Amino acid sequence: MCFNSFFFLFFFMLINYFFFVYFIMNGLSVFFEWEIISFNSMSIVMSILLDWMSLLFMMFVSLISSVVIFYSKSYMNSELNLNRFIILVLMFVFSMVLLIISPNLISILLGWDGLGLISYCLVIYYQNLKSYNAGMLTALSNRIGDVMILMVICWVMNYGSWNYIFYFDFMKNDYVMFIISFMIIIAAMTKSAQIPFSSWLPAAMAAPTPVSALVHSSTLVTAGVYLLIRFNYLLIDMFFFKVLLFLSILTMFMSGISANYEFDLKKIIALSTLSQLGLMMSILSLGFPDIAFFHLLTHAMFKALLFMCAGVIIHMMNDIQDIRYMGGLSLYIPLTSLCLNISNLSLCGIPFLSGFYSKDLILEMVSFNSFNLMVFILFYLSTGLTVFYTFRLIMYVMINDFNLMMIYNLYDEDYIMLNSMFVLLFMSLLSGSFLSWFIFSYPYMIYLPFNLKLMVIYVSILGSILGFMVSNMGIYSLNKLLLSYNLSSFLCLMWFMPNLSTYGLSYIYLNFSQILFKNIDMGWSEIYSGKGIFNILKNYSVFYNIYQMNNFKIYLFSFILWFMILFIFFFI
Amino acid sequence: MFFFILTNNNSNKMFFLFILFFSTLISISSNSWFGCWIGLEINLLSFIPLISNSKNLLSVETSLKYFLTQSLASINFLFMILIKFSLLKNFDMNNIISIMMNSSLLMKMGSAPFHFWFPNIVEGLSWMNNFMLMTWQKISPMILLSYYFNKNFLIFMIIMNLIIGSLGGLNQTSLRKLLAFSSINNLGWMIFSIMISENLWLFYFLIYSMMIFMMISLFFLMNMYFMNQLFINNMNFFIKLNLLINFLSLGGLPPFMGFMPKWIIINFLLINKFYFLTFIFMMTSLIIIYYYIRIIYSSFMFNYFKMKWVNLLMKNNMSLINLSSFISISSMILSTFIFM
């Protein structure tokens, strides 16, 4: 099953690649329409849009998913129901492909809901309590986005067609489009985990590692960015884009800080994904959709690789994900640590790896165009923080002393996992340059002063020095977190947003319902309906019994009495 | 019924039973009021030997009490008839004399406010005699009631019947007294139905007597007179189901047979805007269903009280029990196929 799906997806990727090259060289885009049913004046039509953006994205998605399926043959080999897992992953890929190729809100909804549902099934795959909680958080956060898209479908019916690409840039100033754009932005924010909805992404790391590599690094979380790229011509002058800018750079900043406090390997990588998503959203909201798409694709490559290396390390550490137990691995597992290091450095933006092309271009565009001071500071600060946590991670995992057990077995020769990682390694080295030559037919004009150009390098060096110093632990190291406990807990727990969106939302209602239940259900309504009426009736019955238990002559006398009473009473 | 009398090896009772039936027919089919009174007297005279058993002191006392109340009522009835003949020559029904006549008939039936003898006497009779008292003895007073009644007075009596029937039964543990109070309550429904139409009263009365018969025969077969005897013996599942269904049917719960007559009466009430009376009918029904369910609720629980050393063999009579359960459950729905 694994091999079949791997080969199928790999050939699908090659087909997409050739079509992509042909389409982008000739400037083609193809629109298929399939009329399903036509009845009087109503016709149901399924449409598919193939232009270079969707073909490129499909190529990347199928590449990553084929590699991940191949990887999971060895990673999940002790799983009894591996077929079920592979089928879930394939359904996920199908939903993603449906989302990518659709110019039509209904098929976007199908893909979007499919993504949400299948990611829920994949997150709860291990079926323990933590997975269930994580799955619920993931599903409910994504559900908000689904509701938003459903409402967009309702509002868009004003325009007579669900194929948004035909009319949305003609109707930009309409009140209806205003509401639609608001809802689309909220939907994209839930899927891509921006600030109000960002608590699900670190929690979703309870999923198996191949799922994290496919879903939470490159495909699910980028669906929101992709939707906004498609809707870009509509949204580009609107007020909501400024709100999105603000929230996404705050997301970038917050997750960069929180990743510095984390000790769980997958959570660090999740928070770094969140940071890069914030970067993508912010450059999109500044008005550069093609750069955002470029960064989306290169990020997918090295993040998936990073997750797969993390999976190998977790297997080796006897399923422990805490980095304080790891150390010195670069000496023992050279090939895996090669992949890990290259993907980490690509994430930091080290020159001429793939991440450099997209990240450096983003930062130079931010410096070249005139944006305000806060945007500038937070961008560069987040870049520095990226390098900071990356170097901290490298120090903890690769360089410091090994902390697990005295007897250990670090097995690097699992060539199934390694071969899949090598494919992504090749892509993560070369995809930066390769994509920049394809996508940008002419380069962007950037003219910067010398120190501003080197600002990236300054913050990177600063971040690396800080990362090195923070991870130097000895026997006598003081736990500095306790010295600034309040601030540290605020920064470490993602600015308390997971608590706000889970406990904070439900606390009021649960408290209120407890008050209602205690006072009304078990209180007054018992006196007025249940027990109270029973007591009244019982008293009446006891009172009646006094009349019933009597001598017989009293009965006979009472008959006469009643006769006289009724006689007098009705005489009138 | 004859089967049970024959088992007692007493053919005198069959003779008196025949006279009892005949006396009711005399009473309801006579041309003049005097003939009605004669029928009522023969009724009294023939019922007394049925219930008295000289070997049992309680039964003798009961028959004496019955004789006293019924003869008082008959005397009143005769006197009021004579006053009506001599003083009033009209056909108008809603006057003072009709109140008097109705009062005496109500005393004959055991309806409130003249009902105090009824639970007492029911306590002293056996189950089959109770059955006769609760069903057959009500026929002639009710039909006589329909010939000359005072509407306002009767509605007042109905309300009193309903309330006393429901409230009085809450504090009882004897099954006979419980059924007596439920009979008083059902008298309220029956008096109202006879004010509407005699056909409706017949319908209600037949269904009521059928349900009472099923229940009383069940209690008779198991020889149960008190509530604490209910589940000491090990009834098998079908007997418990039959008990459950019959009690719920008597209370007027929908899919069972006993709902149908009450439904028709409520329909009439609502169409003619008797809203307050509807309310009283409903609420007292609820109280009655409460104490029925109090009797039977442990019969439909999975964990029930079971004593291991008592074994009840009811193999001979299972067909009757099954038939009665079937009738109670399905007859309302089947009747829609036949009549509507």
From TrEMBL, chain A:
Query: Which terms are listed as keywords in the entry?
Result: Electron transport, Membrane, Mitochondrion, Mitochondrion inner membrane, NAD, Respiratory chain, Translocase, Transmembrane, Transmembrane helix, Transport, Ubiquinone
Keyword flag Endoplasmic reticulum = no
Q: What class of enzyme is it?
A: translocase
Recorded catalytic activity of this chain's protein: a ubiquinone + NADH + 5 H(+)(in) = a ubiquinol + NAD(+) + 4 H(+)(out)
Q: Where in the cell is it found?
A: Mitochondrion inner membrane
Which InterPro entries did the record assign?
NADH_DH_su5_C, ND/Mrp_TM, NU5C-like
Q: Topology with regard to the membrane?
A: Multi-pass membrane protein
Q: Which residues cross the membrane?
A: 7-32, 44-70, 82-101, 147-167, 173-190, 211-233, 239-261, 268-288, 300-317, 329-353, 373-394, 415-440, 455-478, 490-510, 552-571
EC number, UniProt record: 7.1.1.2
The cross-references to Pfam families, in alphabetical order and at most eight, read: NADH5_C, Proton_antipo_M
Q: Which GO terms describe its biological process?
A: ATP synthesis coupled electron transport; electron transport coupled proton transport
**The NADH dehydrogenase subunit 5 C-terminal domain, residue ranges:** 389-570
* Domain NADH:quinone oxidoreductase/Mrp antiporter transmembrane span(s) in chain numbering: 102-382
MF annotations from Gene Ontology? NADH dehydrogenase (ubiquinone) activity; NADH dehydrogenase activity
Where is the major localization of this protein? mitochondrion
What are the GO cellular component annotations? mitochondrial inner membrane
This molecule's function is given as: Core subunit of the mitochondrial membrane respiratory chain NADH dehydrogenase (Complex I) that is believed to belong to the minimal assembly required for catalysis. Complex I functions in the transfer of electrons from NADH to the respiratory chain. The immediate electron acceptor for the enzyme is believed to be ubiquinone.
Q: Return the PANTHER family for the record.
A: NADH-UBIQUINONE OXIDOREDUCTASE CHAIN 5
Q: What is this protein called?
A: NADH-ubiquinone oxidoreductase chain 5
Species of origin: Bombyx mori (Silk moth)
Q: Gene encoding this polypeptide?
A: ND5
Automatic annotation (TrEMBL), chain B:
Per the UniProt record, which EC number(s) apply here? Answer: 7.1.1.2
Keywords from the named record: Electron transport, Membrane, Mitochondrion, Mitochondrion inner membrane, NAD, Respiratory chain, Translocase, Transmembrane, Transmembrane helix, Transport, Ubiquinone
- MF terms in GO: NADH dehydrogenase (ubiquinone) activity
InterPro entries with a match to the protein in the record = Complex_I_Subunit_2, NADH_UbQ_OxRdtase_chain2, ND/Mrp_TM
Which segments cross the bilayer? 66-87, 99-118, 153-171, 178-196, 202-225, 237-254, 274-297, 318-339
The compartments listed are:
Mitochondrion inner membrane
- Domain NADH:quinone oxidoreductase/Mrp antiporter transmembrane, chain residue ranges per copy: 30-287
An example Gene Ontology cellular component term from the record?
mitochondrial inner membrane
Quote any Pfam family the record assigns: Proton_antipo_M
Look up and give the membrane topology term: Multi-pass membrane protein
GO BP annotations of the record are:
mitochondrial electron transport, NADH to ubiquinone
Q: State the reactions this protein catalyses.
A: a ubiquinone + NADH + 5 H(+)(in) = a ubiquinol + NAD(+) + 4 H(+)(out)
State what this protein does. Answer: Core subunit of the mitochondrial membrane respiratory chain NADH dehydrogenase (Complex I) which catalyzes electron transfer from NADH through the respiratory chain, using ubiquinone as an electron acceptor. Essential for the catalytic activity and assembly of complex I.
Q: Which family does it belong to?
A: Belongs to the complex I subunit 2 family.
Official protein name in the record: NADH-ubiquinone oxidoreductase chain 2
From which source organism is this entry? Bombyx mori (Silk moth)
Source gene?
Answer: ND2
